[in-house]
Amino acid sequence: MIEALQFEFMQNALIAGLLASVICGIMGTLVVVNRIVFLSGGIAHAAFGGIGLAFFFGWHYIVGTIGFSLMAAVVMAAITLKAKHRADTIIGVIWAIGMAIGIILLDLTPGYNVDLMSYLFGSLLTVPDSDIWMMLCVGLAIVGIIFYFYNDYLALSYDEEFAQIRGVRVKSLYFLMIVMLAVGIVMIIQVVGLILVIALLTIPPYIAERYSTSLPKMMIISSILSAIFTVTGLWFSYVFDLTSGASIIAVAGIGFLISLGIERFRPKIAVKSIH
Question: For residues 275 and 272, what is the distance between their CA atoms, to the nearest angstrom?
Fold first, then answer.
């Protein structure tokens, strides 16, 4: 892996992967704690409509994807607040419509020659400098917003009714969180692709939750785990010539299974140690 870092594309891949790990660690923690995993999956797959929109009109794909994802995310957030009992159904519908729009627009794009695999499963080895700077700005913005509204998000994440009693602007903060999630997902799509993005948003936070006593600790552990999975997966993809996004998620999946095994046998070990 060290010798591979002499290449600029590997340096960019490593930096992009680490930045995505921070975004996943922070936003993934909020996703898991607030139980909006399905919503985040809906945003990720609806983003495909933005990809189709961008190529149809000749825009930079991030412009189209962020715009479409934000629109879909705001609609989903409004639905989850007003009709929670129907939220999963409507999110599923928006999810499907978004992907259908993307495919239709790509079919209608003149001279269409886009490699869909890079968007479905990630293309970490082809991330340009401009996208890295965008990821850095997004990461810093997310860290700054979470730091500024930390107490409010802490109250919102663990007890929504208590947060309202405290005077927290629950709806405004919830919409802001969904907007951050949508923008973060668009950035992460470059690393693991829109099909696998949900795994990187949920696996590290799930593991981190088992060893955390506070929200910041969970975010930090989750970010570190994301970085470990990303770097290890990147190394495997380089050595064995595999798709980078799938390799990263495969490593994360192994980490998930190991954590389940540790969690399962830990009580037995504790019982034996008592006797």
Answer: 5
